[in-house]
Design brief:
The complex is a heterodimer.
Chain A lengths: L1 H28 L4 H6 L5 H10 L6 H13 L13 H36 L4 H15 L2 H15 L15 H35 L2 H8 L4 H29 L3 H6 L5 H11 L2 H29 L2 H4 L1
Chain B lengths: L2 H30 L11 E6 L14 H7 L7 E3 L5 E3 L2 E6 L5 E6 L13 H13 L11 E8 L2 E6 L6 H6 L9 H5 L13 E7 L3 E6 L12 E6 L3 H10 L4 E2 L7 H6 L4 E6 L3 E6 L9 H10 L2 H9 L3 E3 L21 H10 L5 E8 L3 H15 L3 E8 L1 H10 L4 E6 L5 H9 L13 H12 L3 H17 L3 E13 L3 E2 L15 E2 L2
Parallel strand pairs in B: 1-10, 1-11, 15-16, 15-17
Antiparallel strand pairs in B: 2-3, 4-5, 5-7, 6-7, 8-9, 9-10, 11-18, 12-18, 13-17, 13-18, 14-18, 19-20
Helix pairs in contact in B: 8-10, 9-11, 13-14, 13-15, 14-15
Classes of the chains: A mainly alpha, B alpha+beta.
C-alpha cells in the first residue's frame, strides 16, 4: 500500500509539471496584453516598457518558464501583475471559501441524490421514477446562473429568509456562514445532484439484476435490507468515482456561481485573473486546482480499495 | 408583504443587525487601539460596488473600483467641488507668479495622516516626485512641471516650463495624484494598507470580498458622522439590488439600468442621477480606406440616430451630444451639425464613390452598453448601405487590438474628465497617446497646443470652441452621449450627493439607526 501511494505521488508530480508547461504555453496564445490591461487606457510607452520589464515579460519564453518552475519548486509562484502580492498567499487565502462552498454543495447533492436515485431504481418504470428523471433532466439542462438568480429572487427577495450574496468565514461566525452558503451551495448542489441521481439510478438498476440479489431475496431477506446491505454497497463503487469527479470540479471553483453570489473563492479569483490577464495568479490558481484534483483521485483510489478488497490485489 | 411575514423578516433583521453591530464595535476597537469610537456614533455604511480594486496604491492603480474606495481615504492638494470647480483641500491658498511659471501653495495647518504622523510639504514633494520619476499613471499630468520643492514645511512651490492654466485640475482632478506617506510606500504596505489623510482609513481588506474603512479621528475636515464604510464587491446588478432591498446594503452604484425608471418612481429606495462628464463615441480608423475620407466619416455621422442609440443602450439614462463636453460645463460648445439624415448619408457616400461598404465595429463585453449600442448602429448603417460586422471582445483583447490599430471602427467611452484638455488632447492631437484612430489636423494640433498654455480664460474657451468645431466637422470622433451617473440608497442614508465626476464621497453621510 505504501509503495502504491509513493508511486502515485511521483506520478502526480510529473503531471503537475506537465500542467505548468501546458498552462504556460496556452497563456502565450491568449490574446490580450497583461501590461496594457494593468495600465488601463491612459499610458505612455516608457511606462509600458518599465512595467513589462518589472514583470519579466521582456525575457525569452524559455527563460520565463524555467525561472517560473524553479521558483515554483520552492513554493514561490511569483507575484500578481495587478496587486504585486505573492500569488501563493492570494490563492491560499481564497481556498477556505471554495472548500466550504464545495463541501456543503456536495453534501447536499449526496443527501438528495442517493435516496432519489435508489427510489427511482427500485420503483423503475413507475410515476416516481419518471418524476425523478424529470428532476434530473431539469437540473442538468437549466443553467446554474439562472437557477441562482431565481433562488436569490425567491429566498432573498420575496421570502427574505436568506441574504442574497456575500460571505462570512466559517470560523468567524458559523451561523452567518451557514445563512450565506445555503443559496449558492443549493444552486451548485442541485446541478451535481441531478448528475449523481442518474448515475445512482443506473448503478442500482444494474446491481439489482445481479445474482447475489436473487440469492439474498431467496434467503428471504426483506427488500429494504437487500437494497441497503447488498445493492447499495456494490452500486456505490462507480458512484464514488462520479462523486469524486464532482468534488474535484467544484474545488476548481464554480466560477459563475462564485461571481454571482459575490463568494470570494478560487473560481472568482480565476475569473478576475482572466479578465485582467493576471497570468501569475491564473497559473497559480490552475496549479492549485490540478493539485487538488490529483489529491482527490488518489483518495478515491484508496477508498476503492476499502470498498472492494479485490482492487488492492491488483 | 403580509403582516406575519414582515414580523419574521423584522426579527431576522434585528438578529442580523445585532450581530453586525457587535462585529462593528469589535472592529473599531481593534483598529483605534481602544479608542473612543463605537458608542452613540453613526454606524457602518454598507456599500456595494461592482468590482474589486486591483490594488490600493493611488499612484499605481488605474481601476475605477480602486478610486471609489480611495476617494474616501486620500486627499489631494485641491479638489473639485460639486460643480467640478477646484477648491482648497490640503492647500488652503495659492499664488501664481506674473509669468505664470511658478505656483506657490500654502498647506493647511495641522493636517495629519490617519496614523497620526503630520503631513508636510515634504510629503507633497515626495508624492509628486514619485509619480514623475516613476513614470506612473498620472505622470502625463506633470508634463509641464520643471520642479516641485518645499522651502518650508507649509509651502510647496511648483515651477513650470510653460504656463499651465489647468494645473489645478491636474493636481486635484482625481485621487491618482493623492498625497501619500513615504514610509507607507517604502514598506510596500500601500498596496493593501494605504495611509492617507482623508476622512476614512482602510482597516481591513479581504481579497475577493470586501474592504472596511473606519473613521479617521485625525481628519482635518472634522469628524465624519459614520463609524465606517464597508465596500463589498457584487458583480451582478440584480444581486446588488436585492441586497439593497433587503437592507444588507445601504448604497450601491450597481443597479440594473432597465429597472432604474421603476425604482425612481417607487418610494422604497432613493435613486438619483446626474449627467456625467464622461462621453461615449464611435471612432473610425483614419489609417484605413475609406475612413480616411472626411465625407465617409460625415456620412456615418448623418446615418446615426443618437436618440434611438441612447434609448436602447442606456434606457434613456443619458444625454445625447455631438461634442465632447456636456452642457453643465463652462466649456460646453453648442454645436450639433449631424441631424439623423439617412438621405444625406447616402448622398455623401455616393459622392465619395463608396458602395457596398462592410465595416468592422469593435466593442467590448466589459461595457455591455457598447454591445447594445453597436447592434442599433448596425441597423441604422444598414439603412444607408453599410454592412456592420460587430466584433465583441473582452477588454484585454480589445485594448490590444486598439493599440495595434486593428479595427475599422470602435465604440468606447472616455471617463472622468474635468478640464477641456482632458477631453481633447490625448484623443485628437496628432501626438496624443490615445489617438489610435490616427486623426491628424495641423489646425487642431495648433489650437490644442495653444489652449494648453493659454491663461486668459476667455481666449482659452475660444480656442477650445474652435478645436471642438473642427473635430466635429472632421468627424474625428462621432460623439453619441454623456451617460448619467446613477446611484441608489436606502431610506437610512442621508447627506449623500451624486457627483458628475463619479467621485463617491461618504464624508458628510449619516445613517439612521
Amino acid at each position: 500500500m505504501a509503495r502504491f501511494v509513493v508511486r502515485r505521488l511521483l506520478q502526480s508530480g510529473i503531471v503537475l509539471l506537465g500542467v505548468t508547461l501546458v498552462v504556460f504555453l496556452l497563456l502565450q496564445l491568449v490574446p490580450g496584453d497583461p501590461v496594457r490591461v494593468a495600465l488601463g487606457t491612459r499610458f505612455d510607452p516608457q511606462t509600458y516598457e518599465a512595467l513589462r520589464a518589472r514583470a519579466g515579460l521582456d525575457q525569452p519564453l524559455l527563460q520565463q518558464y524555467l525561472s517560473y518552475v524553479g521558483r515554483a519548486l520552492t513554493g514561490d509562484l511569483g507575484v500578481s501583475f495587478r496587486s504585486g502580492q505573492p500569488v501563493t498567499t492570494i490563492v491560499l487565502d481564497r481556498l477556505p471559501a471554495t472548500l466550504s462552498l464545495a463541501g456543503t454543495a456536495i453534501l447536499l447533492a449526496v443527501l438528495l441524490a442517493v435516496p432519489l436515485g435508489v427510489l427511482a431504481a427500485v420503483r423503475s418504470g413507475t410515476a416516481v421514477d419518471h418524476a425523478v428523471r424529470v428532476f434530473s433532466q431539469f437540473g442538468v439542462s437549466v443553467p446554474d446562473f439562472w437557477m441562482g438568480i431565481m433562488g436569490i429572487l425567491l429566498f432573498a427577495g420575496v421570502l427574505g429568509w436568506l441574504p442574497p450574496s456575500g460571505y462570512v468565514g466559517l470560523t468567524e461566525d458559523p451561523a452567518r456562514w451557514a445563512s450565506h452558503v445555503l443559496l449558492p451551495a443549493a444552486t451548485v448542489g442541485l446541478v451535481s445532484a441531478s448528475i449523481l441521481t442518474r448515475f445512482i439510478r443506473s448503478a442500482v438498476l444494474e446491481a439489482l439484476a445481479e445474482d447475489y440479489v436473487r440469492t439474498a431475496e431467496a434467503k428471504g431477506l426483506r427488500p429494504r435490507v437487500v437494497v441497503l446491505r447488498h445493492v447499495l454497497r456494490n452500486a456505490l463503487i462507480p458512484v464514488v468515482t462520479v462523486v469524486a469527479v464532482q468534488v474535484a470540479s467544484l474545488l476548481g471553483g464554480v466560477i459563475v456561481i462564485e461571481v454571482l453570489f459575490a463568494w470570494p473563492g478560487v473560481g472568482r479569483l480565476t475569473y478576475d485573473a482572466v479578465q485582467a490577464r493576471d497570468y501569475p495568479v491564473l497559473q497559480g490558481a490552475i496549479l492549485l486546482v490540478a493539485a487538488l484534483f490529483l489529491l482527490v483521485n488518489l483518495l478515491v483510489d484508496l477508498l476503492y480499495a476499502r470498498l472492494d478488497p479485490r482492487i488492492t490485489a491488483r | 408583504m403580509s403582516r406575519s411575514r414582515s414580523g419574521v423578516v423584522a426579527a431576522a433583521l434585528a438578529v442580523a443587525l445585532a450581530v453586525s453591530a457587535g462585529c462593528t464595535a469589535g472592529e473599531s476597537v481593534d483598529v483605534d487601539g481602544a479608542g473612543p469610537g463605537g458608542s452613540g456614533a453613526g454606524g457602518v455604511l454598507q456599500a456595494a460596488i461592482s468590482g474589486e480594486p486591483d490594488q490600493l496604491d493611488p499612484h499605481k492603480t488605474s481601476a475605477y473600483h480602486s478610486f471609489q474606495v480611495l476617494e474616501n481615504v486620500y486627499d489631494t492638494l485641491v479638489e473639485p467641488d460639486e460643480n467640478l470647480e477646484m477648491r482648497p483641500s490640503l492647500a488652503t491658498k495659492w499664488t501664481t507668479s506674473d509669468d505664470q511659471l511658478t505656483w506657490t501653495f500654502t498647506l493647511r495647518d495641522g493636517v495629519r495622516f490617519a496614523d497620526g504622523a503630520p503631513l508636510t510639504a515634504e510629503d507633497v514633494v515626495y508624492s509628486y516626485q514619485r509619480i514623475i520619476t516613476g513614470k506612473l499613471n498620472a505622470a502625463y499630468r506633470f508634463a509641464t512641471v520643471k520642479s516641485v520643492t518645499a522651502p518650508d514645511p507649509a509651502t510647496v512651490v511648483v515651477a513650470l516650463t510653460a504656463p499651465t492654466p489647468n494645473l489645478l485640475a491636474n493636481l486635484g482632478g482625481f485621487k491618482g495624484v493623492a498625497i501619500v506617506q513615504r514610509g507607507n510606500v517604502e514598506s510596500g504596505a500601500i498596496t493593501t494598507k494605504p495611509v492617507g489623510s482623508g476622512p476614512f482609513a482602510v482597516a481591513a481588506y479581504t481579497s475577493g470580498d470586501s474592504i472596511t474603512l473606519v473613521r479617521n479621528e485625525n481628519w482635518w475636515g472634522g469628524t465624519p458622522k459614520l463609524d465606517g464604510v464597508t465596500f463589498t464587491f457584487v458583480k451582478d446588478p440584480t444581486v446588488a439590488l436585492q441586497n439593497l432591498r433587503g437592507g444588507q446594503v445601504h448604497w450601491t452604484d450597481n443597479l440594473p439600468p432597465q429597472q432604474v425608471p421603476a425604482l425612481r418612481d417607487g418610494d422604497e429606495l432613493t435613486v438619483e442621477s446626474a449627467p456625467s462628464s464622461d462621453y461615449w463615441y464611435v471612432a473610425l480608423n483614419q489609417a484605413r480606406k475609406p475612413y480616411d475620407e472626411v465625407a465617409v466619416r460625415r456620412a456615418i455621422g448623418f446615418a446615426l440616430d443618437r436618440e434611438a442609440i441612447t434609448k436602447a443602450a442606456k434606457f434613456g439614462l443619458a444625454t445625447v451630444n455631438q461634442t465632447a463636453i456636456p452642457k453643465a460645463s463652462a466649456f460646453h460648445y453648442d454645436y450639433a451639425p449631424y441631424s439623423h439624415d439617412p438621405e444625406q448619408a447616402r448622398r455623401l457616400l455616393g459622392e465619395a464613390g463608396v458602395r457596398g461598404l462592410t465595416m468592422d465595429l469593435m466593442v467590448t463585453s466589459e461595457y455591455p452598453e457598447t454591445v447594445t449600442a453597436a447592434q442599433v448602429i448596425a441597423a441604422q448603417l444598414k439603412d444607408v448601405g453599410v454592412t456592420v460586422k460587430i466584433r465583441t471582445l473582452d477588454f484585454a483583447q480589445w485594448l490590444d487590438e486598439q493599440a495595434k490599430g486593428n479595427f475599422d471602427a470602435f465604440l468606447l467611452g472616455w471617463l472622468g474628465n474635468i478640464d477641456p484638455d482632458e477631453f481633447y488632447y490625448a484623443q485628437h492631437h496628432s501626438a496624443g497617446t490615445f489617438n489610435f484612430h490616427k486623426y491628424r489636423n495641423p489646425t487642431v494640433d495648433r489650437l490644442l497646443d495653444q489652449a494648453r498654455t493659454e491663461t486668459d480664460q476667455g481666449t482659452r474657451k475660444q480656442r477650445y470652441d474652435q478645436a471642438a468645431k473642427q473635430i466635429v466637422d472632421d468627424a474625428s470622433y462621432l460623439y453619441l452621449y454623456n451617460p448619467d451617473v446613477v446611484q441608489g440608497w436606502t431610506g437610512k442614508v442621508s447627506g449623500y450627493r451624486v457627483r458628475a465626476d463619479r467621485a463617491i464621497r461618504f464624508r458628510d453621510v449619516s445613517l439612521a439607526r
